[in-house]
Target: Homoserine dehydrogenase
Amino acid sequence: MVEALKIGLLGLGTVGTATAGILLSPESRHPLLKEIEIAKVGVKTLDKRRAVEFADGVLTTDLEAIVTDPDLDIVVELIGGLEPARSLILKAISHQKHVVTANKAVISRYGEEIYRAAAEAGVYVLIEAAVGGGIPIIRPLQQSLSVNRIDSILGIINGTTNFILTKMATEGSDFSEVLTEAQELGYAEADPSADVDGYDAADKITILATLAFGEQVSLEQVSCEGIRQVSAVDIQYAERLGFEIKLLAIAQREQSGLQVRVHPTLVPKEHPLANIDGVNNAILVEGDPIGQVMFYGPGAGGGATASAVVSDLMNIAAMLKVSQAVNPLLKIPQHPRRELVPIQELVTRFYARIICIDRPGVIGNLGTCFGKHKVSLESIVQIDFNNGFAEIVVVTHNVKEENFRQALAEIPHLDAIEQIQIPSVLRVLREK
Amino acid sequence: MVEALKIGLLGLGTVGTATAGILLSPESRHPLLKEIEIAKVGVKTLDKRRAVEFADGVLTTDLEAIVTDPDLDIVVELIGGLEPARSLILKAISHQKHVVTANKAVISRYGEEIYRAAAEAGVYVLIEAAVGGGIPIIRPLQQSLSVNRIDSILGIINGTTNFILTKMATEGSDFSEVLTEAQELGYAEADPSADVDGYDAADKITILATLAFGEQVSLEQVSCEGIRQVSAVDIQYAERLGFEIKLLAIAQREQSGLQVRVHPTLVPKEHPLANIDGVNNAILVEGDPIGQVMFYGPGAGGGATASAVVSDLMNIAAMLKVSQAVNPLLKIPQHPRRELVPIQELVTRFYARIICIDRPGVIGNLGTCFGKHKVSLESIVQIDFNNGFAEIVVVTHNVKEENFRQALAEIPHLDAIEQIQIPSVLRVLREK
Ligand SMILES: NC(=O)c1ccc[n+]([C@@H]2O[C@H](COP(=O)([O-])OP(=O)(O)OC[C@H]3O[C@@H](n4cnc5c(N)ncnc54)[C@H](OP(=O)(O)O)[C@@H]3O)[C@@H](O)[C@H]2O)c1
Ligand SMILES: NC(=O)c1ccc[n+]([C@@H]2O[C@H](COP(=O)([O-])OP(=O)(O)OC[C@H]3O[C@@H](n4cnc5c(N)ncnc54)[C@H](OP(=O)(O)O)[C@@H]3O)[C@@H](O)[C@H]2O)c1
Model:
């Protein structure tokens, strides 16, 4: 591969724009990205304002011309919906183009047809972005985890419904109220059915089950219930009994075969999926001998989903290069060895526990001393007394390690401080 | 690749034995595993009892002969420690063998030397098992996530210390007590220093930082503090202030460069890492544009670690095959389309909320009816009363969906039941 790989992007909406954004700013990312070039972009209307700019002639409404263009190596389908997405993907394949898509609706229904066509044409079809947004789950399932016998996949894979259920739980409100709120916030569509009736999750679990168990799962056979029937009362009762209610997508190997389903589920509070809140997604995979592994992160959003799209592009670039030499994904570090930033320059928060004789002025003295060294305190609490001693716990805001250490060193010399001990100094996760 | 790939296994301890276990039972795992064959196994003593059996001549104490054997394609180093592991790896590479290793101590110190040698020899060195046990983290960092600008990696990557801190928090006991307990349970070594002083975590974060930021990190520059100084009192104060104490390994991009460190850290309770308990590991990666993703699972143990070792073997097999055709990791499902198991045959637990007129015999009637249909109840609670009505919440043990539905259908016809409504029927995550 001497020249850059030329890609044709179908769709410049939420995900398409973010995908272009990554490819157009390759600095500090994987070096292979510099070898991928956006040659054509297909959209519905040319005269829309766009957040990214392209050279003249790149933007077009003729998507057929893109998927048949002999100059292109890869087609990235990000228009969504069933048609023309399916036909464009198939036509791209028949024109020897590799395909990357985030379209779970098309893959869950026509995946078999598409993969068969791709195998015949000898091209790749990569779909990391179709499930779990930015979370790497498709590739781990196909690669790292596939040496296991997979027993089950349990996923919170629809952010909208998880947002709604989380809100219902924290606010005690009913489904319809929270749905309206989610629609106003842009977390739910005007027609919410695909999300709240579980169809989107069904698409996604069909794809995951097909990969994990190596047999093509039929979407129509997936049993699917949404969250409309879940009431605030049920969430409260579940809570009292020790459960959270989550919309789970489940694929399980049973003695008699495979079972795949989507339904609201009471999850014990100590289960790893019980703590997954808001629009986040999580996928828990159980297998032998690995046990349980979980993948957690943003299940949607332009940037996160684009991260998955571009990782697929990069993998195609890597696979096309692999015959030349050692796989470029496994290269040794590109940058020379540099000094690390020393710990004194660390900016973090601190927790310190201080014990000294309890007398007036102690807190004031400490406060002044920290202030002098630019250590801003979040809290200073005198928590405990033992035979004339005071125990004081201090938590700081972000501060430079060096400054904090200087303040600590000065404390024993303060007027009001006697018989001091500082048994604990710990760091606190820093503020953003 | 017409023949199977021949591997030489160095070490048949916890991880080596589990690795052999996976390779010797390839059914229901990835089909590529059938093309990997254990040709030689190197150990220290021949006359130990082993959990796996090999043909005569496979087991040997001559490890030099293995790494120089012209018939072998891949060497898997699972003996641990610095020497002879490092020399054996380098010799294997110089004899054109691909290498898979779980040895974080060797890679964190000699990774640069080893990768350089591998690049010259044109062989792969894969290290998925060296960090996070079975959790796929090395490959996602090199591939899916590497299109992002990585800002930070925060990891709980030492199971022993996380087990100790979790126990200290739940039992209020002090470090030394819990350490003794952990040693008795086999979760901590007789010489616990590598774990409790943070050195093992420092090895691992050195490896992760090197991959994520593309520059070779020097282990000696990693600032490292262990958990010996953390007391039960600090854990309690932290708790009151809204924090958990965790041993975090942190690699962060700062304006002035990279900072890499290991130290006990107060983590806000609502942070995703705060809930990671016991021997589990979790790695939180933050980047642009992806945001936060987290990988969670068993950070050690023979089976889990072997899953990562074998996934590396499979990836080498796939990369060696890739020039022939389309990457075999991306193949279409191997099994024909089959019927899914219908939802009536699902075995799960149920939650049902029942409202009816409050009169004697209601609970008894319900109990008898469920029993008749083989529905065993975990709890049946009459929670609420409204103007003459009773609200009853039922949670079952595992039951066949069909049986539960039949019981529900019969309830309205029971003697004591009048004006019944069943506003909610939800599934509960099933018992093991
Ligand atoms: N948004 C997310 O968070 C997310 C997450 C995971 C997966 N996905 C998937 O990613 C895909 C794209 O989603 P999105 O949110 O980016 O969609 P979007 O914002 O609605 O953008 C769709 C883009 O496709 C173009 N388009 C649509 N139909 C077209 C047609 N018939 N001919 C030409 N162009 C057409 C539109 O052109 P105009 O700009 O001219 O209107 C627009 O640029 C979908 O498959 C979705 O399921 C999205
Ligand atoms: N155990 C885990 O959970 C875990 C998790 C992640 C990574 N790892 C890494 O995996 C590697 C192996 O760990 P392990 O727990 O499996 O170790 P282990 O149980 O102690 O087994 C070590 C094996 O190597 C053999 N061996 C050691 N030194 C040797 C020498 N000089 N010559 C020949 N054979 C030698 C031993 O032979 P004999 O059987 O004859 O004594 C034994 O079979 C280490 O790098 C470790 O850090 C382990």
User: Anything to note?
Assistant: The first helix of chain B runs from residue 14 to 23. The mean pLDDT of chain B is 91. Residues 346-428 of chain B form a domain with the Alpha-Beta Plaits fold (CATH 3.30.70.260).
